Amino acid sequence: MTLFQTIISRPHRTRPFRGPRAPKDLVFVVVLWASGVLAIGAMAGVLIVLAIGAAPALTEAGLAAFMADGDWYPTAGEFGLVAMVAATLAVSAGALAVAGPLGILCAVYIRYYAGDVAGAAFRVVLMTLAAIPSVVYGLWGMTVLVPHIAAWQPPGTSLLAGVIVLSIMVLPTVAVLAEAGLRQLPASLYLGSLALGCARHAAIKRIVLPSAKGAVAAACMLGLARALGETMAVLMVVGNAVAMPDSPFASVRTLPANIALEMAYAIDVHRSALFVSGLVLMALVGLLLVMRWYWGGADAAQS
Amino acid sequence: MRRSLRPFVNDLVVRAAVAAVVFVLAAIVVHVVTRGAALVSWDFLTTAPRAAGRAGGIAPVLVSTAAVTAVALAAALPLAVGAAVFLVEAVRPHTVAARLTRGCLGVLAAVPSIVFGLAGNMIFCDWLGFGFSILAGGLTLALMILPIAACVAETTLRMHGEDRRAGYALGLPQRRIVWSIMLPAAAPGIFAGLGLGFGRAVAESAALIFTSGYVVRMPDSVFDSGRTMAVHILDLAMNVPGGDGNAFATATVLLVSVAAVVALFTALDGKQGREFV
User: Fold this and answer.
1) Measured in whole angstroms, how far is the alpha carbon of residue B194 from the centre of its chain?
2) Would you give the distance in Å from CA A261 to the centre of its chain?
3) The pLDDT value given to residue B1
4) Which residues of B touch A232 (CB under 8 A)?
5) CA atoms of A271 and A264, how far apart (whole Å)
6) Following DSSP, what letter does each residue of A194-234 receive, concatenated?
7) Long-range contacts of range B96-100, CB-CB < 8 Å, 24 or more positions apart?
8) CA atoms within 13 A on the CB side of B83
9) Buried-most residue among A199, A243, A268, B32 (CB within 10 A)?
10) How far apart are CA A19 and CA B182, in angstroms?
């Protein structure tokens, strides 16, 4: 199989049964194909539009201007994205460092610790966490978290606040997808290790989790992708100064926040430079998707 | 002695993690609702904001939210059902077309919402000339919820393979099978998918600030700009000193409406434990 096929492959299904096809059905089939093409077109359209929007700035300033370690004054021809890329990666990696292990523990709890009722109840907790709008997390972060951090290390709006808020938001993604991965393991794996005399914790740590490595890694990748793209909750708590993230208490600005903050009044090259921010963000997410497919298989943890 | 403590410590770690998650959820919800609930009243829901939102209610915001989500769901429904039926009926599972479609939907599901905002701004506001409008915002959200709605619809359609094969055995043409057998049978699942899409749409702010905009007036038509609840909360929290109270009140209304609609659609669907985070 080529890499491309590997990326988008799915487990085998039985061949669908083909019924007789009346001439009128042809119209129907055309409509069906049109909707399929539309779904592909939606994704292609988003990427193409992003590229078209980014083109003016890229042709005028060149990609090097964005990658250079410069300041971000797009109206004055300074397009340094490096600090914001670093901040985006720092906030997201920090969030995953917290939410990854916690999410895996939550998945283990649902699968191997909780009874039916407790498991279902905890699932509802995770769904609720996933359903809370990001502005509500942001509002909570601004009014509870930031003052607490400010009392300790002013001004409070910081990388750390972003990491905490984001880790809460990413946790349900990791937990639910990791749990789905654990559920796909053959039951005999866990039961067999218990039968061989393993303690529960040993069976989980040495047998179950290593076997589900791919799915768990895929869950973390998807969590990270979600963290990279999160805009408003992060924007509300990190302070938004364009600076390298050199301390947990530093004020930083992430790529999505940069777009959200400036898009309203940006024109010409400035606007185009924001599309470049979007393109860079999309490239980061795309990289993660490829990694997730590589590790987890396309069928694992489809959201 | 040390060895015998290990299972206990390991179990403790798992349970502590779970307790921490439950605690954080409770802390956030309780904080938002206790600060917001006292301010929510019939007047709050039915009057217009005053003093940049510090005082008054959120009536136009509620109307805009309903309008944006209605446009989004109305546009996403045919697209998602079309894509799902295409995947189930028109192509065999392992053909290039099927993989490409599914791959594209998968990528679309991972696109950050702010990127949808950029694309929507250019396509709907600029090229199609809708400007900052409820229509532009709704269509942008439709693109965003398309993959999740299509995925749920496809799963549900596949659950009714028996009915489908029975239809073919009776010699029914394909369009009759889709219209009269599969879609009615899968309707609850399709609406559950839309419910999830609604949850996402009503929570969205990043894709909307520069597509549907943040004009707080009562919209006259879908071509007017309108501010949704999420955008209202954002604006009150970030740009309006002293807007916290009404931000919490709006957040309470938002939480309650998300919970109500997601619960309603889940009940309609009837299948518990479906998870699409």
Assistant:
1) 8
2) 21
3) 46
4) 205-206, 230, 234
5) 9
6) HHTT--HHHIIIIIIHHHTHHHHHHHHHHHHHHHHH--HHH
7) B97/A36, B99/A5, B99/A8, B99/A9, B99/A10, B100/A8, B100/A40
8) 32
9) B32
10) 15
Q: What is the pLDDT of residues B136-189, one digit of tens each?
A: 999 999 999 999 999 989 988 988 888 888 888 888 888 888 889 899 988 888
3-state SS class at B148: helix
Q: Which residue of B has its CA nearest to A298?
A: B103
Chain B: nearest CA to A43, how far in angstroms?
6
Q: Are B75 and B142 in contact (CB under 8 A)?
A: yes
Its ipTM equals 0.90
Angle between helices B96-110 and A213-229 (to 10 degrees): 50
Least confident segment among A20-34, A88-102, A103-117, B236-250: A20-34
- Tokens standing for A196? 């061989």
**Minimum CA–CA partner of A237 in chain B:** B238
pTM for the full predicted model: 0.89
Quick: pLDDT tens for A3-21.
455 445 554 444 455 555 5
CB-side neighbour CA atoms (13 Å) of A150: 13
Tokens for A209, please give them. Answer: 């989790």
Separation CA A68–CA A81 (nearest Å): 8
In this complex, do B254 and A133 lie within 8 Å of one another by their Cβ atoms? yes
Best A2, A12, A46, A285 member to test B by mutation, with max B CBs in 10 Å, is: A46
Which member of A39, A143, A201 has the closest CB to residue B244?
A143
Region of residue B129 (phi > 0: left; psi between -120 and 50: alpha; otherwise: beta): left
What do you get for the CA distance between the two ends of chain B, in Å?
43
Q: Is the peptide bond before B112 cis (omega within 30 degrees of 0)?
A: no
Q: What is the pLDDT, as a whole number, of residue A6?
A: 47
| Contact at CB, B111 and A229, closer than 8 angstroms | yes
Alpha helices of chain A — where are they, by DSSP H? 3-8, 23-61, 63-67, 82-108, 116-131, 134-140, 146-152, 159-183, 187-195, 200-202, 209-211, 213-229, 232-237, 255-262, 268-296
Q: Is B276 on the interface with A (CB under 8 A)?
A: yes
Note whether B174 and A24 are within 8 A (CB).
Answer: no
Length of chain B: 277
CB distance A129–B21 less than 8 Å?
A: yes
Q: Cα(A142)–Cα(B28) distance, rounded to whole angstroms?
A: 12
Query: Tokens in use for A22?
Result: 């009346």
Strands (E), B180-239: none
Contact B106/B83 with Cβ under 8 angstroms? no
- Whether B132 has its CB under 8 Å from any CB of chain A: the answer is no
